[in-house]
Amino acid sequence: MKSPLHLDLLKEEERLSSSPIRLRVLLPLITTFFLLCALLVWGLFEIQVLGKRKLMANVENAVKSVTPVHAAVLASRDQEKEMRAGVQQLSLYKHARNVFGPTLSIIAAQVPTNIQFTEMRIFPPQTASEPSRSVNPPPAPTNTLERVSLRIAGRTKGSRASESVNDLMAALQTAAFTNVFRSVSIPKGAFRLDTSRNQSALTANESLLFEITCECEPRRFE
User: Fold this and answer.
1) % of the chain surpassing 70 pLDDT
2) Which residues make Cβ contacts (< 8 Å) with residue 107, sequence separation at least 6?
3) pLDDT per residue over 178-215, tens digit each?
4) Do 201 and 147 sit in the same domain of this protein?
5) Alpha-carbon dihedral of residues 108, 112, 118, 121, nearest 10 degrees?
6) Residue 86's domain spans which residues?
7) 111: buried, middle or exposed (CB in 10 Å: 19+, 13-18, 0-12)?
8) Cα–Cα dist 181/168, whole Å
9) Does residue 148 form part of some domain?
10) Under a CB-based contact definition with an 8 Å cutoff, are residues 149 and 215 in contact?
């Protein structure tokens, strides 16, 4: 028995695939999907960028608004530190203050009648310059102790000139003065004849010049 004749009249490009998914339909769908995903990611990224820009602008505005206040606070802190340092320095000088007034007020009763003072001066350890007129406190001391001395200069005359100076020195070493004076001495060459009066020889009315140095209790900056 002869097989039936089969005649294929379809061209090759006209043949359809047996798969239910068409490639020419699937490719546009896939492309559209990826394009939508890219647009979504870009949109999310743009939203984040805009949010960060807005946050940065808010932070900058906040910083600008508090900058004057911050500067005022820093200035107040610097002023507070300066004032605290000044108060501390004044406290140190207050504690280191030596009260000479009561002691010096009783020296007059101890001075013999033939002695005349020409100078009484308290010297700090270093020669001080002209006193400052500034309202700022003096600089803080570099040492915790500062030695101070009192110099008494004067002249005496008469037959007991030397004895009168020795009596004055002995009086300055009594209990009434030891709370301020630690030692009393006459520097070398500080007891001499007063040549300004053009005396050619020692007489009963000879005039002598003297200097007495009193080492005072040190000032304690504590």
Assistant:
1) 74
2) 172
3) 888 888 888 888 888 877 655 444 455 668 899 999 88
4) yes
5) -50
6) 22-95
7) middle
8) 14
9) yes
10) yes
Dump pLDDT digits (tens) for 48-107: 888 888 888 888 888 888 888 888 888 999 999 999 888 888 887 777 777 778 888 888
Count structural domains, the chain: 2
Residues found in the chain: 222
116 and 52 in one domain?
Answer: no
118: left (phi over 0), alpha (psi -120 to 50) or beta: alpha
Token pair for residue 201? Answer: 């020889």
- 12-36 pLDDT, tens digit each: 665 665 555 566 667 778 888 888 8
Phi-psi region of 167 (alpha: psi -120 to 50; beta: other; left: phi over 0): alpha
* Six-digit token string for 199: 């005396």
In a domain, 108, yes or no: yes
